[in-house]
Write a structure and sequence with these properties.
Oligomer: single chain
Shape: globular
Number of helices: 18
Distance between the termini: 37 Å
Number of strands: 0
CATH architecture: Up-down Bundle
Strand content: under 5%
Structural class: mainly alpha
CATH topology: Growth Hormone, Chain: A
Number of domains: 1
Largest sheet: none
CATH class: Mainly Alpha
Length: 391
């Protein structure tokens, strides 16, 4: 588990370095807000298409080959981004990175492979914490490397650092990380079982409720992530360095929660209740951001969003993993990730336009309204699970 934790930290660190930079690169190339957010969404749209494919391949061939292949693809995308001199190159780098993003589904499946059902939330929480650390440190490092002045910001240096980190992660997977889905387990998967994401959702109604709830929560997360740099730049005049440091603060809370508190409270309250608490916290944070007139209130709203993310992500992943069997765990987790990717793919195509047409508060208020029903979906999924368990 420690080796997987380190690989996930390094992998997401390389990705996170570039998070605060892409909107500024697009702005430098003359893109308006309603065009910047779709460029961000191109990554998730590509990931949406590819995630179930990578999940099935990890069930068939093992987790390690998929992790190394996806890391190599990420490395190539960072090189293209560092060399980008117009919007088309920037878009190409995001599309390639999304298509090769099989790492998350494989990482969550790996953690599920090596953990007993009663400890799965803890293991997935550790993976979530590793991802959170990457998202926490990466934007801060990227902002510092790029600089504060958008006109003179250095985008090639952060891309080079991300490339080197991906190479290090590949080496760690190859030399340190043992295969969790061994040949004897993969033998069962060679049977002609070919269920895509829609088939899995039709067959497993509880999984359908969980994925639907995660989709709605990720809609609000995608709104915040896609519009945050534009909002901070236009409202407060913040450059890449300040935005990167704010991302650091925003990600610190989920890391602390997923790394410690969640594994302590889940045995007492259960995954579903913690997930619902996370949803309500995120909705409250978005509403506070939407209607705050001063920076301290907006920061408080961001903190509530961080709490919501830290509570919801590991518990929802654990709930989804419980709907999998040994031979289709990668496919189930790939389906779950597809629900998240669908939200991240669709929402950026609308968030920039809403921001431009209705003002800076509108996307956050809309996100809160969209996300609130997720609490009912998670609650209903567990009611369905209890019904199915009753003889």
């Amino acid at each position: 588990m420690r080796a997987l934790f380190v690989v996930c930290v390094i992998d997401i660190l390389g990705f996170g370095i570039l998070i605060p930079l892409v909107p500024y690169m697009a702005d430098r190339f003359g893109a308006a807000p309603e065009l910047i957010t779709p460029i961000l969404g191109a990554y998730s749209l590509s990931q949406l298409i590819a995630a179930p494919f990578w999940g099935r391949l990890s069930d068939r061939y093992g987790r390690r080959p998929i992790l190394m292949t996806s890391l190599a693809g990420a490395c190539a995308s960072y090189v293209i981004l560092g060399l980008a001199h117009n919007l088309w190159w920037l878009l190409l780098s995001r599309v390639l990175a999304g298509f090769m993003a099989g790492n998350l589904a494989a990482a969550f499946a790996y953690a599920s492979d090596i953990s007993a059902p009663e400890h799965r939330a803890k293991s997935l929480g550790m993976v979530g914490a590793a991802i959170g650390i990457g998202f926490m440190l990466g934007p801060a490092i990227g902002g510092v490397l790029a600089g504060e002045d958008e006109r003179t910001a250095n985008f090639a240096l952060p891309a080079a650092v991300s490339t080197m980190l991906s190479l290090v992660a590949i080496a760690l997977v190859y030399f340190v990380l043992p295969e969790s889905h061994r040949e004897e387990h993969r033998a069962a998967h060679r049977e002609p079982v070919r269920r895509n994401a829609l088939q899995l959702l039709r067959e497993r109604p509880i999984l359908r409720f969980i994925v639907s709830g995660a989709f709605l929560v990720t809609c609000s997360q995608s709104i915040l992530e896609s519009i945050f740099a534009i909002w901070a730049m236009n409202r407060f005049g913040f450059g890449p360095r300040t935005v990167g440091l704010l991302f650091f603060c925003l990600a610190l809370i989920p890391v602390v929660l997923q790394g410690g508190l969640v594994r302590l409270v889940v045995p007492r309250f259960g995954e579903a209740r913690i997930a619902i608490a996370g949803i309500l916290s995120y909705v409250a944070g978005l509403m506070l951001i939407a209607y705050s007139s001063h920076l301290p209130l907006a920061v408080a709203g961001l903190a509530l969003c961080g709490v919501g993310s830290g509570l919801f992500s590991p518990t929802a992943s654990a709930l989804a993993s419980k709907q999998a069997t040994q031979r289709d765990r990668g496919a189930v987790m790939g389906t779950y990730q597809s629900g998240l990717s669908l939200a991240r793919a669709v929402i950026p195509f609308a968030s920039g336009a809403v921001y431009a047409a209705l003002g800076p508060s509108a996307p956050f208020a809309a996100g809160a309204c969209v996300t609130l029903p997720a609490a009912w979906l998670i609650w209903n999924s567990q009611r369905g699970a209890r019904t199915m368990a009753t003889p």
